Amino acid sequence: MKAISDNTGMDIGFSLRRRTVLAGWALSVVMLGHAPAASLRPVGEAAAATGSNLGPLIEASALRPWLGRVRILDIREPDDEAPADAARWLAGAVSAPYSRWRGPLGEERPLPELTAWVRSLGLDAQTPVVIVGDGEEASDFGAAARVYWTLRWLGLRRLAILNGGAPAWIDAGLPLARQPATVTPSTYTPRLDASVRASLEEVRARLGDPQTLLLDARPAPFYRGAIKAPAARRPGTLPGAQSFDHAQWFPDGSARLPDAATLARIAAQGPWQARAGAAPTRMVSFCNTGHWAAINWFVLSEVLGQSGVQLYPGSMVEWSRAGLPMDHVPGRAEQLWAQLRTLWRSTP
User: Fold this and answer.
1) pLDDT digits (tens, 9 = 90+) for 86-100
2) What distance in Å separates the CA atoms of residue 155 and residue 267, rounded to the nearest whole number?
3) Which residue of 40, 85, 138, 231 pairs with 250 in a disulfide if CB–CB is 3.0 to 4.6 A?
4) Are 36 and 30 in contact (CB under 8 A)?
5) What tens digit of pLDDT does each residue of 142-158 get?
6) CATH number of 29-38+195-346
7) Beta bridge partners of 242
């Protein structure tokens, strides 16, 4: 069972109807960082598994020699319909379903719960971790990126995402097993990294700050206020936010980040080059519940090496429920009409 996307703000354990993601704008890291494109860390370099470093993004072919030396987290939801004796597990991987990383409505789990969960998976600061997701569509990458971000926030640094997820593992002929691996729990104590996380209070304090750029990772209709996540109180976006659809990083619609040259072209596009004054020194990525936004955070911070990038995990569901100011909020009559249209479309 597939468990998540960011387009609803739902209880994470439920399967979701997939939506077509509309392409948005791309971000010019060159302008934001005052650096030439050549100075950005290319995807190929980031993914290279050399020495003791896996890199934030790894290809299945590069992962093969690491098998047995890394902790592999299979974040797919268990398939209750698969035959009990089917070799459907990634050999050596620990089952760590994405739903266990998130709370109701996409909320963060309390730190004690996350700590207990990480310990049960045998994670520690010394063992490299590779995260493997569904790998079927761009939004699936968000699940892997959100788990990666959570572990970074908890203080773990030796992390990587398998580009392409489970399908890439299978296509590469990596081994499968009939059961997930069992591990000895760890005693890891989180050392929270505040540099990767922005709270509601911090975002509120930065509204209007010319040095802070708020990045809306959702498809354009969310940004414009045409639609909203069911768990959000109102449609719209953060005041002064810019639209940067997460799907722009996946031009072929797959769950794989493209090659270095393509990623560099995407990063060099966008409206940021026309911004007046000094380039912002901080970026806050957000969406509905911090799922799609994790993709923007991961690409900008971990792959391209842009400093000052944070994720706002509560995103628009938390913000709208707090009754705080928003941009692109339609009038009450327009909101009611949109609700009626939605109800009509959902009626058999």
Assistant:
1) 677 899 999 999 999
2) 28
3) 138
4) yes
5) 999 999 999 999 999 99
6) 3.40.250.10
7) 215
Nearest Cα residue to 244 out of 38, 26, 32: 26
Give pLDDT tens digits for 288-338. 999 999 999 999 999 988 889 999 999 999 999 999 999 998 876 565 555
> How many other β-carbons are positioned within 10 Å of the β-carbon of residue 39?
12
43-192 domain in CATH 1.20.1640.10? no
What does the pLDDT read at residue 33?
35
DSSP 96: -
Q: What angle do CA 112, 114, 120 make, to 5 degrees?
A: 105
Q: Which among 247, 57, 22 has a CA at the least distance from the CA of 138?
A: 247
d(CA 153, CA 20): 30
* Residue 63 pLDDT exceeds 70: yes
Give residue for tokens 């499968």. Answer: 176
* Global pTM value: 0.84
Side-chain-side CA neighbours of 215 within 13 Å: the count stands at 36
What are the start and end residues of each CATH 3.40.250.10 domain in the chain? 29-38+195-346, 43-192
Q: Which residue has tokens 């739903």?
A: 99
For 7, residues 6+ apart whose C-beta sits below 8 A from its C-beta are: 16, 19, 139, 218, 219, 222, 229, 288
